Amino acid sequence: MTGQTINRVGGKGVYVKGNDIDTDRIIPARFLKCVTFDELGPALFFDERFTSDGKSKGHVLDAPEHKGAAVLLSDDNFGCGSSREHAPQAIKKFGFEAVIAGSFAEIFHGNCTTLGIPCVVMQRADREKLGELLAEDPERDVVIDIEALKVTCANTSFDVTMKESAREAFLHATYDPLDTLMRQMDAINATAERLGYA
Amino acid sequence: MGKNLFQKVWDDHVVGRLDNGQYQVFMALHLIHEVTSPQAFGMLKDKHLKVAYPKRTFATVDHIIPTDDQSRPLADDMAEQMIQVLSDATTEHGIEFFAPESGSQGIVHVVGPELGLTQPGMTICCGDSHTSTHGAFGCIALGIGTSQVRDVLASQTLAMDPLKVRRIRVEGKLSKGVTAKDVILHIIRILGVNGGVGYAYEYAGSVIDNMTMEERMTVCNMSIEGGARCGYINPDETTFEFLKGRERVPSGAAFDAAVEKWRSYASDADANYDDEVVIAAADIRPTVTWGITPGQAISIEESTPNPETSPDKALVTDALRYMQLEPDTPIKGTHIDVAFIGSCTNGRLSDFKAVAEVIKGKQVASGVRAIAVPGSEKVDKDARALGLDKVFEAAGFEWRKPGCSMCLAMNPDKLVGDEVCASSSNRNFIGRQGSSTGRTILMSPIMVAAAAVKGEVADAREVFGL
Lengths: 198, 466
Hints:
The complex is a heterodimer of chains A (198) and B (466). Chain A is of the alpha/beta class and 198 residues long. Helix content of chain A is 32%, strand content 16%. A 7-stranded mixed β-sheet of chain A has the order 4-3-2-1-5-6-7.
């Protein structure tokens, strides 16, 4: 047990549209100059949100009606590129608790899972519908039920998918695997011995 | 039915099955650097944990190190602090650190292979997505996040889902002027930037068989750009010849024994694959990107796409707008401001040798800032011994000190404003090279050289009469 069981997460949602949104866009490299992850929240999507002289570009994340959103909605291949954990750390510290997308890049997906951020996959037509519901009323709650693999918003329910190992890990609070891994020290040492790595 | 290399290496390194269905996998080699690893040592400290196998982890600095003045303390306080935290942690935990001016510092994916730390049949990980580079030696080589760096430091293992394996056979003969970089850009163009999700890529076929190790590293390096979790090439005589005599490789009878073991990891002739793709070498031309993902690539003979006839109209529209390119326009002739040769993709000795051969007697066009950045101190030393630095300098390139440099702009090497860079690196993402409006066109080192000489995107075959 390394954290709390995560089954239902939700809150206001915001749709950051586009395929192939990479981790350099999620957090530009200059913000990686740090020795802790504590201050990364404001850096989220920084160059998409602000001009080089710091003026707001009017990005959807900064729209007053989306303030406090807990669910980030995006499209295909979200989080591609660099392995920087700074990307999901910034997403989490900005206030998001879950990401819904068309698909996820794998390293990003793994990093999110370890940090307790569920990544769920939703079909395109459903993302468009959910986006419309949020555009009509940004105050609507988006609720992700991990056990049932359903997302609901305004009495509309959408089927979603999730990597089974991640779903299990959220439901059993083992998404941060360190304690689980450390319990096997004897087997680890035996493997190292067998492979000549000891 | 036989096994492929992925299955063999995986089976060898599995410690056990976890309750959530994942596997616990032992990591034979762990490489760390100053950007994604200092935080992991902080996490260990918080949990009062030690490094389980300090002799299986090696550290260097690459991302933030300046390529002009590397004297300490670095001018950038935060960069200096990151190096110091890493350096202190390696001392505290007994991890070997290839510090600047040690003779072994460099980009982590250049250093591992050149020292012979990277060996066939290993599981390798590093907090950097281009760890896939090491797959060139027949390894499962994985980019990981910082929490996973922590997991490996504490347990030498990772929790992983198994992968499917797609064999990509590149068959035939590459034509003159077509390089390993063009092969991988072409593959990503065909299969897409997310085509590899859920897969390990096995690169095979006569073109791959005939490649040198450095060319194979270029191909495997960009597996991640195709969405694959890792990419590898079966070890063969080329691999063993490369490793023979390297500093961290056994010698004498122990080497012969190692070769026998390494050979056994290669995919069996009757191995099973989840998917197979065959690519004709004859279809591959010098390839350049026009957009904001590595998959948005075309041959030098082609024109930019038209959003109206593209499957993802929004992405193509956004990409053309960002790149300030018109649809249906030849990419050849696109003005450039900067030429960059280096990175973990193309910063090895053979890359500089290939460029030196063609730029001898040529000049970088006026107004173009051209830099050549060796991937490691060893590459720098070897290049200097051959006089390559002088050839580059005579042509108008700056010859810099080793580091990641302009690949990712965490150091002073950056684009300014909306400059266009002809780059031998691996990512053309928005803002990747340090300016939020900077534009990157990915290509092979000799194509960068051609662009540098012409001041615009050019066909190396024409410029250099190849």
